[in-house]
């Protein structure tokens, strides 16, 4: 399918832009077990290091960020949306192949990392093309915590967060 191959091409370009930094193997199947005596505790989530490389494609962009959970309660990222995209999907990458996931676990006292070559967001059906220097408003929805709305900066197409350019 045409759309699928466009997605794969974009991912290959992204993976090629940076040395593969090792795939984290999250994106476990969404087992909604809540048997850990959680009570009313909520995850305390914060987002850091978010960015969108300026897309090379007119209809698709990738996004990266880290979600940190400071609490002792696990949570789950269940959906992502943005006003610039008709749809935002969440993908894992393993062995060079990416797979769409319905949710990603955020462990207690842990992190969920989206980075080039690994997990990533995919902004599809773009309504406008994000340009370097702009920001994109993105809403993250979780299973337990309230939604978070963040402004993701648009960086250069070859931006590398470890060098800062
Ligand atoms: Cu993808």
Summarize the structure.
The protein is 10% helix and 44% strand. It is mainly β. Strand 9 and strand 10 form a beta hairpin.
How would you explain this protein's 3D organization?
With 165 residues, this protein is mainly beta. It has one helix spanning 2-17; strands spanning 45-53, 60-69, 75-82, 85-94, 97-101, 104-106, 111-114, 120-126, 135-142, 148-155. It has one domain: Immunoglobulin-like. Helix content is 10%, strand content 44%. Strands 1, 2, 3, 4, 5, 6, 7, 8, 9 and 10 form a ten-stranded mixed sheet that branches. A hairpin with a 6-residue loop joins strand 1 (45-53) and strand 2. The radius of gyration is 16 Å and the shape is globular. Bound molecules: copper (II) ion. Copper (II) ion (CU) binds next to helix 1 and strand 8. Copper (II) ion is lined by residues 7, 11, 91, 98, 120, 122.
């Amino acid at each position: 399918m045409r759309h699928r191959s466009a997605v794969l091409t974009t991912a290959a370009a992204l993976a090629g832009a940076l040395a593969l930094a090792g795939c984290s193997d999250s994106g476990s199947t969404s087992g909604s077990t809540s048997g850990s005596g959680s009570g009313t505790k909520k995850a305390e989530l914060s987002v850091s290091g978010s960015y969108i490389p300026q897309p090379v494609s007119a209809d698709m962009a990738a996004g990266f960020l880290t979600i940190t959970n400071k609490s002792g309660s696990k949570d789950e990222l269940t959906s992502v949306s943005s006003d610039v995209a008709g749809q935002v999907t969440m993908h894992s990458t393993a062995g060079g192949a990416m797979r769409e996931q319905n949710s990603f676990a955020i462990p207690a006292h842990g992190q969920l990392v989206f980075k080039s070559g690994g997990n990533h967001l995919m902004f599809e059906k773009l309504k406008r093309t994000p340009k370097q220097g702009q920001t994109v408003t993105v809403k993250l929805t979780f299973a337990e915590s309230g939604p978070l709305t963040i402004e993701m900066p648009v960086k250069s197409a070859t931006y590398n967060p470890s060098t800062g350019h």
